[in-house]
Amino acid sequence: MSQEKQKYSEETIELLEEEKTLLLLNDDVNTFDYVIEVLIKVCEHTYEQAETCALITHYKGKCPVKSGTYEELEPYYVSLLNHHLYAKIQ
User: Fold this and answer.
1) What integer is the mean pLDDT of 71-82?
2) What are all long-range contacts of 1-7, with beta carbons under 8 Å and residues at least 24 apart?
3) Please, is 28 exposed, middle or buried when counting C-beta atoms within 10 Å of its C-beta (0-12, 13-18, 19+)?
4) Measured on CA atoms in the order 54, 35, 82, 28, is the torsion positive or negative?
5) Cα(77)–Cα(27) distance, rounded to whole angstroms?
6) Within the chain, where are the H helices?
7) What CA–CA distance (Å, rounded) separates 35 from 22?
8) What is the dihedral sign for C-alpha 79, 49, 89, 12?
């Protein structure tokens, strides 16, 4: 059995390590209280941070809730999706 090694170009590695933003996207399903509760639980926001993000998301359609590399943000992204919130990493 031969092992294949994956080779990444420097450009690919830079893209993966580049600073990204986790955006919370607006929806017409979840209540403010639920969104606040999830942001506190998942993103470790204070109540005030979570409330502000919920309001910005409601009025602007999206709000950055975390920043970091893709690898750092992916678990938060998956958790937000598992809590039925809309999000994306940009």
Assistant:
1) 97
2) none
3) exposed
4) negative
5) 16
6) 10-17, 32-43, 47-60, 70-82
7) 15
8) negative
Domain 19-89 has what CATH class? alpha beta
Res 60: pLDDT: 98
Q: What is the DSSP letter of 84?
A: T
β-strand 62-68 against 20-25: which pairing, if any? antiparallel
- The CA distances from residue 14 to 9, 11, 17, 73, in Å, are 9, 5, 5, 16
Digit-coded pLDDT (tens) for 39-63 = 999 999 999 999 999 999 999 999 9
The whole model's pTM is what?
0.80
**Burial of 43: CB neighbours in 10 Å, binned 0-12, 13-18, 19+:** middle
Alpha carbons 45 and 77: distance in angstroms, whole number:
15
pLDDT at 6 over 80: no
